[in-house]
Design a protein that fits this description.
5 helices; 9 strands; 28% helix; alpha+beta
């Protein structure tokens, strides 16, 4: 067998093995790998008389490098965003509303406490796991007051949760390059259910 033909055969068999392995493990395992081990355990958008609320639960563990940076006093910012769209058959979908939540997590070595800032409020935690548990889930987050004359059944919500590396000091942003340790990002779409 010529050398070139052997190489092609080897490449094809390797890619076939990868394809078979990914097909058997399913799309959930692939999504978890692509999101650096992060997964969305629960996502629910409900419309009631008060408005459109979103409940979610994100499961992830911080990489060792991120924890080391936090323990040295460098703050990390997490962002959750939600955009409400109305489906339209005659044009592109129309954005009705959007909302964003930002958490700033930092370790304070003098007091040996973890501090989580959210909407101008700051709360101390004695352990990192306690602080992470707070930002991993959100319940009844009001993302739109009223939808007006739009039918909630014609709407959907695009949800995203990520670790925002752009909020780090500039020298650290350059040093990160494109490391997968910092690539914590989840995006999902969910339909709106009405409780009225």
């Amino acid at each position: 067998m010529p050398l070139m033909r052997r190489r092609d055969l080897l490449l094809r068999s390797t890619s076939a093995l990868w394809t078979a392995a990914l097909a058997t493990t399913g799309s959930a395992a692939w999504a978890a790998w692509a999101n650096n081990g992060a997964e969305l355990a629960r996502l629910l958008a409900q419309y009631s008389d008060e408005g459109l609320t979103l409940s979610y639960e994100v499961r992830f563990d911080l990489h060792r490098d991120v924890e080391q940076m936090l323990s040295k006093g460098i703050a990390v910012v997490f962002v959750a965003r939600a955009e409400v769209f109305e489906k339209r058959w005659y044009w592109t979908d129309r954005r009705i509303a959007s909302a964003t939540r930002r958490w700033r997590l930092a370790y304070q070595p003098l007091t040996r406490q973890w501090r989580l800032n959210f909407d101008g409020f700051s709360r101390p935690y004695s352990r990192l796991s306690e602080a992470l548990e707070v930002l991993r889930q959100g319940s009844q987050w009001l993302i739109a007051d009223k939808l007006g004359d739009v039918d909630p059944a014609d709407c959907y919500v695009d949800f995203g949760f990520q670790l925002d590396a752009s909020e780090l000091p500039r020298p650290l942003q350059i040093g990160l390059g494109g490391q997968a340790d910092w690539a914590l990002q989840i995006e999902r779409r969910v339909g709106v259910s009405s409780t009225r």
